[in-house]
Write the structure tokens for this entry.
Amino acid sequence: MSPRGRSAVRRLVHPVAWWAWAVALAAAAMRTTNPLILGAIVAVTAYVVVARRGTAAWGRAYGSFLRLAAVLVVFRVLFIAVFGVRVPGEVLVTLPSVQLPSWAAGITIGGPVTVELLLGALYDGMRLGTLVVCVGAANALASPYRLLRSLPAALYEAGVVVTVALAFAPQAVVSLGQVRETRRLRGRPDRGLRSVRGLALPVLEGGLERSVALAASMDARGFGRQGALPPAARRLTALATAVGLLAFCVGLYGLLDAGAPRALGLPVLGAGAVLVAGVLFARGRATRRTRYRPDPWLAPEWSTVAGGVAALLAVIVVARLDPGVLAPSVVPLEVPQLPPLVAVGLLAALTPAWLTPAPPDDAAAAVVGSDAAPASEALAA
Amino acid sequence: MIEFRNVTFTYPDADAPTLDRLDLVIPEGELCLVVGRTGAGKSTLLRAVNGLVPRFTGGRLAGDVLVQGRCTRDLPPRELADVVGLVGQDPAAGFVADTVEDELAYVMENLGVAPDAMRRRVEDVLDLLSLHAVRHRSLATLSGGQQQRVAIASVLTASPRVLVLDEPTSALDPASAEEVLAALTRLVHDLGITALVAEHRLERVLPYADRVLWLPGGGDPAELGEPARVMARTPVAPPVVALGRLVGWDPLPLSVRDARRQAAGLRDRLVGQAPPVSVRPAGATIATTSRLCAGYGRDVVLRDVELHVHRGEVVAVMGRNGAGKSTLLAQLVGLRAPLSGRVEVDGEAPHDLTPARAVRLVGLVPQDPSLLLLRDRVDTECSGADHDAGLPAGTTFALLGELVGEVDPAAHPRDLSEGQRLGLALAVVLAAAPPLVLLDEPTRGLDYGAKDRLVAVLARLAADGHAVVLATHDVEVVARVADRVVVLADGEVVADGPAREVVVHSPVFAPQVAKVLHPEPWLTVDEVEQALAGVA
């Protein structure tokens, strides 16, 4: 084993390992509405992120995702309180109700808001929020650049779309900070609800301009150089890659979403994987790309993936043994339980906080980083 | 090495071509400096060399651009990456990787260089640009000079034969600029690289140039030739050239060293004369900081800063990249709260004021003035500012006209020239008539003409009783407009005094005229011209 493999030496853990860990946790979250399990998953990601996040700009993505998740939960609860199908139970407040005419599907808006209604909405919102938090954890733990680099050469072009999209979030946060400063300099409110109005366009514009500048720089430095493939073969492999990846994603969705038809899971996933693998083999020989200091995949990477998968397996097993505990009923109201097996699985998911090497120290990182921190507060506003 | 054959380029929706029937050949191993006014097409020319123009901009390119015999018409920029290395105006915007080493390796990974060759080349380039000390650092933590050198290094690892640099020293303090230029000359002299450099700060790059390409813009033919010959007639000229023209030196001096050799006679003529003393009387104190400490979290950027700014004076804040200049301005305008100590503008702490109240006391024009602009038309921008400040409609637009002359009211602020955009931002800030006006690096991207107008505007603001504080690296503008210079180093004030006293004896901050006429305390060509007129 090389000295880089020992966890005493500071290095970045392989980005794919972090993504696998986070996706496994997200998949676990998708299978339950139990607020205790969801809360525990968020706590696990928070602890690991605080212990092992990177020092670069992307290392601060987690906070923004956390705020976004909170906003999603609040919106979900408010939305259900107003538009949701009424649930009997303890009435907290009665909203004025409007019966829409039958041509508008005869929906009732408003009406009595019960504890059960709000709790149901809360559980549902927490599931979505936890998913967002898991993606945020992966963003803060894995360098988007290193993730792109670890992709096989033939997938590189498809990968860059995803990577630029991932890099867009931190760039938009920087852009948000600038726009807020601008508003203060122009004498407009920079805090509170009123400041949110008119933010979206400049923030998107700023983020987009950065992305285009980045694309130009990448192109000027040889990104996407073609191998010796003839144009027809190039088009064919590009098409096959796209179809294969699409099938792969649909299959993954089928596998992760418990409600999806069974045929959508493994078979489609397998077909997609075979197609992509074929293209990889065909193009891997034609495309010339090399790697500088490839990220090693050693024991810490394996343990990280194992931790995430353990949590997912625990949830799947509990779903077989005792499905009720994963979806605690709100009518009648029931106290949610944390099954011991899931608790053990989540503890396994927590182990990367100790079993992986710490990221390289960058003493000066905090200076530049602090600019982005106040910017993210606007999300909370 | 680089050949433009009858190249005409027109941006989409533009009436006139930006590059007009350009015919030129730049031979191998030369450092060619592109000189021209703002908007003359310098960046367009540079980005056409590897085909980013027109492939990333749109527009119509007629004629052929050839680099080492390869034509950009047939090959996209990525296929030219092994021949042309291009570094844009904002190097940080183009960074792909997280750390210095990875950034250097990026182009080689794309070119498919073998791993052991990659390791060797990374080491070589780290040494060549003196970056080995920061090789593992995160890119975001580097200083401006280091970032610029990393950007150059990140294209050099592909061993290109042509290096294209757009304003490589504009954002840098004088010392960092020297660092970058020293690295550049080494590449041209030792490795025989052909370099094409555009730069507004001619005083920095001209001494190193083998050849100058003058782009007049506006349809007039470009001119390529010996620096001394071309610079004799161009309307943009650094102070040392302007001084040489004024006194009639032949050959025309391009560097301080050339000029000093011929300046003995001039120094004798000026003996017994004193430069005019600034007649601007300082008024009441408008802004004060006392024992101000500021920073981000645990990192203290400013330490115990004591500063008094008076109405009617222009104060220049100078210092290295990262010395705390922008932080000081952010404190004065109230963007950040102090860690300890006090900031007062007109007796109030700017950070505690509501934004609407703060803009009536202090206005800031940020480094990138377009950040301040919110609308997509000049006239709506101006009427928005009128509305915010509660002014009658048209006030800001009239002010804009006074600052920079006629501006198309329907234009998008992005499409204005740098000078006009700066003027627009300044007009928007001045609409609320704040007694304290702050400018961060206002001369970046401005040609000498635009700087002249900026100097006139600042002088008028001071005469009207505004206090002006500008953070800048531009010693020539400081020499012309500042009454007082404050030098920051590592967050502490190391010098605070009348501009002439502070800059004349500093080897770093002295303007060219002061260096040429040392030890006589002259700062600008205008002063010398007036003194000579007095003698005659």
About this structure: Chain A touches chain B through 54 residues (CB under 8 Å). Residues 229-287 of chain A form one domain. Confidence is low (pLDDT under 50) at residues 1-7, 363-381 of chain A.
